[in-house]
Amino acid sequence: MSLQKETKKYGAMDPSAVDHFIGTNRELWNDSVFRQKGVGIFKKTESILMLFDSENPFSYVPTFNSRCSGLFELIIPTLSTIESWENIGGFWSRVIAANLLPRSTIPIHTDKGFHLTYSKRFHWVIKSNPGVVSIVGNEKLYFAPGEIWQINNRQSHSIENNSDDNRIHIIADFTVDQGPGMDFPAEFEPGSDDYKYFQLRARLSGRMVNRYL
């Protein structure tokens, strides 16, 4: 989904509860090293894959990681708020926490794949400081803690963490409804991770956006 420019700031929400939860549950960063091993540019990062298909990273079909349910619960109000800002039909197809380690960079790259053609990517800044510089297209930006941005990640972009602290973002992809081939099963096996995810979605405040809820 195209932006008029490479980035758009939507607003801000308090990240302190998420920051505290991640800080006291450091083991979540060790749950998956898929992105670090699979994509070389992410070697200096850590990830918590809450909603992600590691078997098919280009998929728009969400796979919910129930081991991260406590963290995901804290993120739901922000996802709901973004939905109210957007006011369009769709569903969350990817939600991860991403940590760029101190004195590290993610080199310039573009994100590709079918998934992104029908998705809007949002960044919610959990931890950062002015030593972190993001470059998206021709824009050089500092994303402050709490801020929520939409990023056109099909433009070239890179990040430099020139500080001695972690840079942590929640990265969430909202896939707009009515894309080709987007046929989700109406029911999931009770107790499965997918079923648990849709149960969580059903508890979102505000407008329900997935047509199977």
Description:
There is one protein chain. This protein has 213 residues and is α+β, with helices and mostly antiparallel strands. The protein has a single domain (7-202), classed as Sandwich (Jelly Rolls). 22% of the residues lie in helices and 31% in strands. The protein has 5 helices and 10 strands. A 6-stranded antiparallel sheet has the order 1-8-5-10-3-2. It has a 4-stranded antiparallel sheet with strand order 4-9-6-7, with no helix packed on it. Strand 6 and strand 7 (139-141) form a beta hairpin. Helix 1 (16-24) runs antiparallel to helix 3. The longest helix has 18 residues, at 69-86. The protein is globular, with a radius of gyration of 16 Å. Residues 178-188 and 202-213 have low confidence and may be disordered.
Q: Within the largest sheet, what's the order of strands? A: 1-8-5-10-3-2
Low-confidence stretches: 178-188, 202-213
Main pleated-sheet profile: 6 strands, antiparallel
Shape label: globular
Short key terms for the protein model shown above:
single chain; 213 residues; alpha+beta; Jelly Rolls; six-stranded antiparallel beta sheet; four-stranded antiparallel beta sheet; 10 strands; disordered C terminus
SSE diagram, text form:
Elements: E1 7-12, H1 16-24, H2 34-38, E2 45-51, H3 69-86, E3 90-100, E4 104-109, H4 114-117, E5 119-127, E6 132-136, E7 139-141, E8 147-151, E9 157-161, E10 167-176, H5 193-202
Antiparallel strand pairs: 1-8, 2-3, 3-10, 4-9, 5-8, 5-10, 6-7, 6-9
